[in-house]
Inverse folding.
């Protein structure tokens, strides 16, 4: 009887501490992951511009002005930049052209000297981004009395 033989073999193997089954097989399994390049920006504070003594410039860099501040968090592999200014509110008395120049710098995990061009951020980390804005009139044109507001779009993509 074949069944009796197998049962006797299994009982004998168990009694001697050996497996009744054939030698096992082991395989390693691989786990893959992809971390997509990601970046988030959080606004900490908006900026303030002040007028120069000759009223030819509005700037966040002048005494009394302040840069906007953002917190940047990234996995790396992204580009940081500022868009040209497109949204500007000026008083009715200001009818002459203004050249708006946004710039930014970063400190923390990423050190970026003040620039207006795109910067590649290769490494992960958290940084503070400071954004400045300067508006300049040409020739003898001057800023008129009233409230000014401009929006700078900061991109991390």
């Amino acid at each position: 009887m074949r069944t009796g033989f197998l049962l006797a073999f299994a009982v004998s193997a168990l009694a001697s501490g050996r497996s009744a089954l054939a030698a096992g097989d082991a395989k390693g399994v691989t786990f893959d992951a992809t971390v997509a390049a990601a970046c988030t920006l959080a606004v900490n504070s908006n900026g303030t511009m002040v007028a120069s003594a000759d009223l030819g410039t509005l700037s966040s860099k002048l005494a009394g002005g302040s840069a906007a501040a953002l917190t940047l968090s990234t996995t790396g592999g992204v580009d940081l930049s500022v868009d040209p200014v497109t949204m500007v509110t000026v008083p009715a008395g200001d009818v002459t052209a203004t050249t708006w120049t946004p710039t930014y710098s970063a400190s923390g995990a990423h050190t970026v000297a003040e620039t207006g061009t795109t910067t590649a951020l290769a490494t992960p980390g958290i940084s503070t981004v400071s954004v400045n804005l300067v508006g300049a009139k040409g020739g003898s044109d001057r800023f008129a009395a009233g409230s000014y507001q401009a929006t700078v779009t900061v991109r991390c993509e």
Notes: The mean pLDDT is 90.
